[in-house]
Amino acid sequence: MIVEFGWFLDRAPWAYSRPGLNRVRVGRKGFVSLLQTRLGLTRPDTQNAERVSEYLRRLERLDSPGAWFHRSLAADPWSTAYELLSARDDAVANGWDGTLPEPEPGTHDGGPSPLLRTLAAAERAGEGVPGGALAPSLADDIVELIAELESAPLPLGIDGLILAHPEDTFPVVWRRIIGALRDRGIRVSEAPAPHRVPELTVLQAETEWEAAEHAARWLAAGPNERTAVVCSDPTAVLDQYLTLHGQPRLGVGERSAWRAQDQLIPLFFELVWEPANVHLLAEFLTLPDSPVRRGAAKHLLRALAEEPGVRGAAWSGAIAAIAADDSLGPDLAAALDRTFRIRLLSEADRPSSAQLVEATAWLTSALTARAAVVPRLQATAAQLGRVLALLAPLPHVSRRDLRRIIASVVTQGAEPLVGAEAAPWLRLSHLAELGEDVDDALWWGFQSASTPAVRRWDAHDAAALARVGVELPTPQQLTGLAVRETLAAAGRCRRLVVVQIAQRNGERVEANPLLEALVAGQPVSSEARAGAAEAGGGMAARIASVTRSPSDLVVPGEGAHDGVWRLAGREARLTRAAARRPVAPRAELEVGPNAALAPERLSFSQLEVLLGCSLRWALERKGRLTVPDAADIPEGSRMIGTFAHRVIERLHEVLHASNRAVPTGSEIDAAIEELLPEFASELLLPGQKARRLTVVAAVGEAARTFFATLQRGGVALQAVEKEFEKDLRLVTDDGVLSIPVVGSADAVGIDEEGRTVVVDLKWSSTGRYLREKVQKGTALQLALYQWALNGGDAPPDHPTAYYLLKQHDFASAHAHFGPSVPRVWAPEELWRRAVHAAEHVVADVLAGHVTATKPFADAFSAAAAQASQSSAPTGAEGGSAPVPAGPTTVEERETAAGRLYVEPGCRFCRFGALCGLKGDYS
C-alpha cells in the first residue's frame, strides 16, 4: 500500500483523475486510524462531552479554596473543565506524559506555571480511583502509536509513505512517527512541489446572489472533467443558479444549531425551569417532531393564546379538554401538566441531577416511543440519553451548566436544503485538499476559508514543556504551513477563479489575507507593471489587476440586445431577457354572487374589519385563513393590555363583594402579583426586571386612577367584561338580513341619572388616535356597546369613554371622566352612517365583489389627482389651483354618500402580500 499523508488531507478525496487500488490519501485522523488498524489498537470512539465530564470529576477531586482554578470552577464548571482538557490534549498530542521540569539551578525560574501544575495533578488524579480513568482521544492515540511503532513487530502492510509537504514542516511529534516508520523499512518520500503558476482571476461581486449567477454561468460554459470546485461556504444560492443552467447541485449545507430536530432537546430543557417561557413552549409544541401529540398541542396553544401563562384558567381548561378527549386521555393530560406546570424547577433552589432527570421522565418515554416509528428521532433519543448520563454525576445543576452540557452533545449540523448530485467536477472544502493537477478551479466562499485555530501557549509554558522534550508548534508555524499548502495546491491549477463578495445579509465581509499570497506569485507583465506604477504600485494595485467585476464580463455583441460574457477562459453568448414589469394584485376582486358570503355573526372587531377591508374579512371569515397558533400568543402591548384588563376585572370582583368603589394599594398589589404569572409570565423571565417594574407600576397606577375617576364622576361600576348579543338588521336588495352581534363590554356601570355608562380599556403607546375618534364622533366601538346594551335601533347618548391605561387618562365627550372632548357626530348619526356602510359592504360581498381598501383608496386618490391636474387651465402663470369636481379620497366619497368610512387596519393585517400592499411593483 502507498499512503499519501498531509496535514490538511483528512477531507481530501483519495483519488480523482488517477484512481487505483492500494493507494490512499489521508490527513492526521485518517493516518492515525490506519496505523491503529494495522497495529490492532482500535477502540470505541468516546465523544468529547463524556471526556469533559470525566475531567470535571478529576478537577472536583483536586479542588480546594486555594486551588488555582477554584473560582473559575465555581463560576462555570463545565467551561473550566473544557478549557483545561483542551490544553491537556494539546500538550499530550505533542508528546507530553504529565512530567514537569525541575527548576533550573542558578536561575530565577519559579518552576512550572499554575496551569501546567494543574494539568499534571489532573493526570495523576485518576490513578487508582474507581471510575477515574479518562477516555483516550486522538492526542492519546498519537502517544500510543509512537510507543507501538518503536516496539511492536507487527507488519504494517505499507510499502511507501509519500509526504504531501516537506518532513521538516510537520510538528516534532509527527516527525517521530515518520522516523519510526522509516526505521521499519517503509520508503518515505516527499511529493514534488508543483512549479506551475496559475492564471488567477478574482471575481469581485457585491452580494452572494450576484456572485452565484456568474459562478454558475462559468461552470456551465465549459467542460468540467478536469475542474475542481472548492466550497468553503454553503452553496444554497449557488445551487439555485446551477439548476437554472442545467448543472448538478453541489449540496453544501450551512452549519446551524437551529434545525428543528436539533432544537427539541435544548427547547425542552429551557421549559423545565420557572417561570414558564410561553413563547419557547409554543415553539416546542409546534416543532415538526414534537413529542406532544398534535391534538394535545392544539389545546395548549389555544390556551396560551388566550392567557400567556400556565397558571390560569385557560391552561387548566386545556388540560381538562385533553383528559376528556378519548384519543388523548387523562394520563397524557396529567403528564403534560406535571411537566410544564407542576414540576418546574427553581434555579435558586439548586436542583439536583435526580430532580432534573425526574423532570425529563415524560420526554424520555415519549421520545423513545416516537423514535421507534420515526427513525430520524433515534439520534435525538440517543443524545437525550447522553445528556442525562452526563448530568447524573453532578450533585447540583445550574441552568448554565445544563446549557453547556447540551451544547456539547447537540452540536451544530450541516444539512443542505437539497442534496448534492453526481457531477463531473471534483468538490473540495479547501484548496489545500487538492492533490492532483486540474485545468480549472473555482473557489466559492474564499473569504470564509480561514486557517485552522491554534491554541496559544505563553512563552514560559512552551519553554517549560520543551525542557521535558515536548516541542509545541507555534501558531506562526501552523499558519505558515496552511498558507504554503494552499499555494502549492494553487500550483496544480492552470486557471484559478476566486469568488469574493462585498456584503452578506447587509454586513460587510472581511477580506482573506491569503489573497495577497496568491497574488504575490503571479507574473507581472510590462503592461501590468506600468499600470501598477500609475496607480501608485504596491499589492493593492496588483490585486486590482487580476480582479474582475460583473460589469467587466460582458462585451456588447453585434445585435442591439446580444453580448458575449467572458471569464477566465470561458465564454457564453447572452440574450437580453424581455423586461417584465411586476403587476400588483387587483384591489377589486369578483368572486361571483354567493349567499354563503353573508356574515353569520359579528363582533365589533369583525364589523370593523368588514367595514375597513372586505377582502381581509372574506379571507379571515370565509377563506378561514389564520395565523399559526404559535404566532397568536399575546406579547408586547397586546399582552400588557390583556394583563391590565384582568387586573381591573379581579379588583372589581373584590370591590363588588365588599360593596366598595376604590381598591387599596395592597389590593392592587395582590391582584398584580396573582395575575402576573397567568397573563404576563414573559415579564418574570431573566433579564425582564426593569421592564417588569415599569409595567407593574403603570398597571397599578392605571387601576388606581380608573376606579378613583369613576367614583369622582358618580359612576357605579356594575360589571366588567359584560357579555351581550343583539341582532343587527341590514336592508339589502334581497330583503332584510338579520345578523347577531356578540361580544363583551370592558366596563359597564350606571351614573347618578340612571344611564348606562360604558368604558373601553385600551393599552396603547399613544392616545392621540383614540382622542381623535372621540373628537370626530367616529368612536364606533363605544356606540356599538351602547346600542347592544340598550333597546332600540340606535344607541342612546349615554356616557362612554376610552380609558387609556398607559396614560392613566380618559378620552370622552362626557364630563363624567374629566374634561370633555367636543365631537362632530352624535352617536345616533354615527350609528346611522355605520349601518348604511354595513348595508353597502354586505351587498357588495353578497354580489361577489370584495375590495382591498388601502390599495383601492391609493389608486382612487391618484386618479383624482391626475384628473385634477389634467383639468387645470394652462397658459397663465400664477393662476388659481383647479378645484376638484368631486371627492378626491375614498373617505370623502363615503362621507358624502352618508356612510361611515373606517380606516383599514393594515398594521394588524397579515395579508399585505395578497392585496399588493407589501411588495415592490415599481
Quick structural overview:
The chain is of the alpha/beta class and 922 residues long. It has 34 helices and 24 strands.
What is the CATH architecture annotation of the domain at 199-253 and 418-554? 3-Layer(aba) Sandwich
Give the DSSP E fraction (strand runs of 2 or more residues): 5-15%
| Name of the CATH class of the domain at 199-253 and 418-554 | Alpha Beta
Question: Nearest-angstrom radius of gyration?
Answer: 37 Å
Number of beta strands:
24
- The CATH topology name of the domain at 199-253 and 418-554 reads Rossmann fold
Largest β-sheet summary? 6 strands, parallel
Query: For the largest beta sheet, what order do the strands appear in spatially?
Result: 9-6-10-11-5-14
The chain-level mean pLDDT equals: 90
Straight-line N-to-C gap: 66 Å
What are the segments in which pLDDT stays under 50 over at least 5 consecutive residues? 876-881
Structural class computed from helices and strand pairing: alpha/beta
- Helix percent band: 40-55%
CATH homologous superfamily identity of the domain at 199-253 and 418-554: P-loop containing nucleotide triphosphate hydrolases
- Describe the global form: globular
* Count of helical regions: 34
